[in-house]
Design brief:
By secondary structure, the protein is of the alpha/beta class. It contains nine helices and eight strands. Strands 1-2-4-3-5-6-7-8 form an eight-stranded mixed β-sheet, with helices on both faces. Helix 4 packs across helix 5. The longest helix is centred in the first third of the chain and has 26 residues. The termini are far apart.
C-alpha cells in the first residue's frame, strides 16, 4: 500500500470514527443543565434527594400513603431532566409507591460527564443509597435511554431488584443505530453499547416492556425484539397504540401503571 493510499485510508477511517461519535451523541445525549426552583418542587410534591439541590442525585416524592408499597427509581430519557418527569410521581405515588426521579451526571445541574460508564456507575450508587435508606422492595423504571441504564444496573448491582419496567426501550443500541444509518458500519464505532438483551439475560424477576406503536425515535420493533429475546418467563409486553415516543404520557394514567405494577409485583417474591 503506497503512502497516498494509506493516507486516504487513514483519513476515511478517522472520518468514520468521528461520524460514529456524532451518531452516538445524536442518538443518546442532550444534557440539560436547568435546575428547578424550590417553588416548582413544592408544587410538584417532590424534594431534592438525598439532600439539597446543591448536591442532589434526583428527587423523591412526598408520600402521604403509609405503609409505602415499595420504592421505584426512575431513569429518564435523553432529553430534559429528572424534574420534568413528575407524571411518574403523580401516577405511582397515587398507588402507594415512593418514587425517586434519578438524575444523570451533566444533567439537571449535576457535575460529571455523559456516557454509559459514567451513567451506570452513578446509577448503581443511587440504587445502593436508596436501598440503604428505604430498604425493599425496590423497582427500576427506565424510559428510552433510561432503559439501558436500568438494565445495566440490574446486571451489576448487588442490591436486590424486585422488578423492572422498561418504557420505549431498545434491544441493543447498535441495532437502533444500524436501523437509522443502514449503509454505515456504525456497530464498529459506537463507544457505548447499552445491550439490554445481554444485561437482562439473567434477571429472574418480573420485567414489563412497554412500546409506543408510533414511536418515531425508537421504532416499536426494537421493544418487540427485546421482549422476544428475554429468557425470563416473568415477562409481559404492552404496546401503546397510536402514540409516539414523546407524547405517550398524555394517554396513560394511574390505571395503566397499576396494571403494570400488579404484574411486576406478582413476580417479586423469592
Amino acid at each position: 500500500m503506497n503512502t497516498v493510499v494509506l493516507s486516504l485510508f487513514l483519513l476515511i477511517l478517522a472520518g468514520l470514527i468521528l461520524l460514529g461519535c456524532d451518531i452516538q451523541n445524536k442518538l443518546l445525549y442532550y444534557p440539560d443543565s436547568s435546575v428547578p426552583s424550590e417553588e416548582s418542587l413544592r408544587a410538584n410534591r417532590i424534594n431534592p434527594w438525598p439532600s439539597s439541590l446543591k448536591d442532589h442525585r434526583g428527587f423523591v416524592s412526598i408520600n402521604e400513603t403509609k405503609p409505602v408499597n415499595g420504592t421505584i427509581i426512575v431513569f429518564h430519557g435523553n432529553a430534559g431532566t429528572a424534574a420534568d418527569r413528575v407524571f411518574y410521581v403523580q401516577s405511582l405515588a397515587a398507588l402507594g409507591y415512593r418514587v425517586i426521579l434519578a438524575e444523570y451526571p451533566a444533567y439537571g445541574g449535576r457535575k460529571g460527564k455523559v456516557g454509559e460508564r459514567a451513567f451506570v456507575s452513578d446509577a448503581s450508587e443511587t440504587v445502593h443509597l436508596a436501598f440503604e435508606q428505604y430498604g425493599g422492595p425496590l423497582f427500576l423504571l427506565g424510559e428510552s435511554l433510561g432503559c439501558g441504564v436500568a438494565a445495566a444496573v440490574a446486571k451489576e448491582t448487588t442490591v436486590k431488584i424486585d422488578g423492572i419496567i422498561l418504557i420505549t426501550p431498545w434491544d441493543t443500541l447498535a441495532s437502533v443505530a444500524q436501523s437509522k444509518f443502514p449503509y454505515l458500519p456504525v456497530r464498529l464505532f459506537l463507544k457505548d453499547k447499552y445491550d439490554n438483551i445481554s444485561n437482562l439475560g439473567s434477571f429472574k424477576k418480573g420485567i414489563a416492556v412497554v412500546g409506543a406503536g408510533r414511536d418515531e425515535v425508537i421504532p416499536v420493533e426494537h421493544a418487540n425484539r427485546l421482549y422476544l429475546a428475554l429468557p425470563s418467563k416473568a415477562k409481559k409486553i404492552w404496546i401503546m397504540k397510536d402514540v409516539g415516543h414523546n407524547d405517550w404520557p398524555m394517554f396513560v394514567g394511574v390505571s395503566f401503571f397499576k396494571e403494570i405494577m400488579d404484574f411486576v409485583r406478582s413476580h417479586d417474591k423469592g
